[in-house]
Amino acid sequence: MHKSERLFQLVNILKGRRLAITAKQLAERFEVSERTIYRDIESLQDSGVPIQGEAGIGYIIDDHPLPPMMFNVDELTALLLGSKMVSAWTDPTLSGHAKAAIEKIEAVLPAHLKQQSDHSPYLVSSFNHGKKQQDFSESLRNAIETCVSVELQYCDVNGTPSNRVIEPLGLVYWGGKWTLIAFCLLRQDYREFRLDRMQHLTITNIHFVKHQEKNLDHYLALIRAKYAKQCD
């Protein structure tokens, strides 16, 4: 567990208790040393978390409103904007998680921050992201995560249909449209497929393996090199 995650969970544990909990109990819970817990407590106190107590007695958070998740105004604005983008532009499952995150963030916002959030200058539109694209997005996301091939019926920019078997590697939002980056078995090379031009897709049970020259990072490196060369 990373330190940031441990600190976050530590705050939640202390907030949820009526009686103090000792460093030994916390150390056993997080499977770390008591010395680590003492350092964590000190870090949280230095950052403004009102933790009361001392070594050998135990710790508890005073009945005092905490800064929401210890983020400042700009950080919360960025998180809310990002969550709204995910809610509007991705598949139904991720969208649901994003909406839940927005509700949790807004639930702990102080009044003055809620007012700022309500009057944010940013508007996230969900136009051009219909149910068909959202369903494709969810199926492709699952295929990417499990490394399974996809049979795809696709129309190019000229409306010419084609059937492909592809190995999906990543979904990229270029602005306005989602694009699937995949390795095309027909062309034996990377290809880009816009979700709004997909007609039908079938998830197969054929697994593929990513390697040094077949993955999303490799594709992006090739794109960067291509544009760098054009700019020379």
From TrEMBL:
<dbReference type="InterPro" id="IPR036388">
    <property type="entry name" value="WH-like_DNA-bd_sf"/>
</dbReference>
<dbReference type="Pfam" id="PF08279">
    <property type="entry name" value="HTH_11"/>
</dbReference>
<dbReference type="Pfam" id="PF13280">
    <property type="entry name" value="WYL"/>
</dbReference>
<dbReference type="InterPro" id="IPR051534">
    <property type="entry name" value="CBASS_pafABC_assoc_protein"/>
</dbReference>
<protein>
    <submittedName>
        <fullName>YafY family transcriptional regulator</fullName>
    </submittedName>
</protein>
<feature type="domain" description="WYL">
    <location>
        <begin position="138"/>
        <end position="203"/>
    </location>
</feature>
<dbReference type="InterPro" id="IPR036390">
    <property type="entry name" value="WH_DNA-bd_sf"/>
</dbReference>
<dbReference type="InterPro" id="IPR013196">
    <property type="entry name" value="HTH_11"/>
</dbReference>
<dbReference type="InterPro" id="IPR026881">
    <property type="entry name" value="WYL_dom"/>
</dbReference>
<feature type="domain" description="Helix-turn-helix type 11">
    <location>
        <begin position="6"/>
        <end position="60"/>
    </location>
</feature>
